[in-house]
Amino acid sequence: MGLGKVKVFNNLGTDYYGVAIAGTGPDTAGYNENETLDECKENIRISSAVGAQALQDVGCKEILVDGYTNAEAAAEGSSLGVWRYQDLKSRDRHLTEPNLSLFDDPDADGWQSGLWKADAQNIVRKLEETPANLMFPSAFAEAAIDILCPCGVHVEVRDKDWLTDKNMTAFLAMSRSSCNPAMLLECSYCGGGETDKPVILTGKGVTFDSGGFCLKPHKGFEEHRADMAGAAVIVGVLKAMARLQVPMNVNALIPLMENMPGNMAMKPGDVIVSLNGKTIRIENTDHEGRVILADCLTLSNQYNPCLVVNIATLTAAVRAALGSSASAAFSTSEVVWRELSRAGAETGDRVWRFPAWKMFTTKVTDWVGVDVHNVGAGRGGDPCLGAAFLLEFAPPVDFLHLDITGTGMLASGACGNAPYYRKGSMTGRPTRALLQFLMQMACPLDRPTTC
Q1: Could you confirm whether 363 is annotated as catalytic?
Q2: Catalytic residue list contains 338
Q3: Over the stretch 405-414, which tens digit does the pLDDT of each residue have?
Q4: Model's pTM, two decimal places?
Q5: Which residues pair with 372 in a beta bridge?
Q6: 158, 204, 225, 290: the active-site residue
Q7: Which of 231, 278, 255 is nearest to 393 (CA)?
Q8: How far is CA 16 from CA 11, 12, 55, 62, 299, in A?
Q9: Which residue among the candidates 176, 216, 243, 278 is catalytic per the annotation?
């Protein structure tokens, strides 16, 4: 039986209603350098996912999952595979939501770790799936508080008055056309020592992106309720870090807003001043994400960070380039890139490095009359131009930017989406890859679990 294929057998005895047999691929699977993937772990995720889904689809409410040779990967695959968004359905119309347990395997710790990691990603998927009329900025803030505060993560909600006092005018300008006021979330996870420099996470939190006056095409419009995927991923990662007690200090800055047309909306050609004093020409109002993140990146310097990580659904062009196969990564550090690539291989949620060259910086800064342009000159290279824009505002430390438009929104069922993402549902990517990366940075001597 091939990888991803499954059959369910019934009436094999009195102990179980059904038994699912799923293909796991070749026994020789391991790290594939050409694929940049630990194929053994990924095959386990796929096999456990299709097996659990098959039993779920025949109505099983209690599912025992074999540990294969890596209980953590089995927990991730099965938990991601059976997840469905049903919050807005009548209870009597809910499909089966099974409980998962480890079957006849001593690695209970690995299983629990996998469940926590998958749960973090499922939290992200739930936030992304929620319709924009229910997941506006203040609703996202409330959800983040409910998710993070019980785990010991501190959350501060900064309102419009606070943003005005801080002179975050670029953020306020892009958000002013919506009746739902913008706000900034400051989240703090203290897992390291008091003197340890923190890692800063910034994430785009546009709860609905119409494009403003540069209105998006009608086709696929509703998917842009997940334009806050970067923000949601940060919430999921912080939840998992607290559960796993990762020894690292992390501060997160999440700008929340809606990008809407209206009589107060920014117009193409308008010029605004950012927090660091640079002027920005808004040539395309649909490029609001990089503008609101500019102020957050400038603000992050006050934390004296050792590393800044930005995550955003920044450009549609990255989906054209990579599909949903990998998240685009821009890194100013070779060490950071190597650890991120390793994390992608470990989790099956791969990344691919794009260039952060000076030629792209020139294209966004070499303009008469303004310091920075929110589109840039020339044709093509949109993801690189977006990264170059962000680098104009980032602190002078190691910087990593992930463009997740292709990976972090709807699963397409092709181009790299594994069976544990049901087609047509949000993926929550790259939650586990970013979490694994931070765990590796916190514990550089730790080696990955064997398979």
Answers
A1: no
A2: no
A3: 999 999 875 4
A4: 0.96
A5: 280
A6: 290
A7: 278
A8: 8, 8, 11, 10, 57
A9: 216
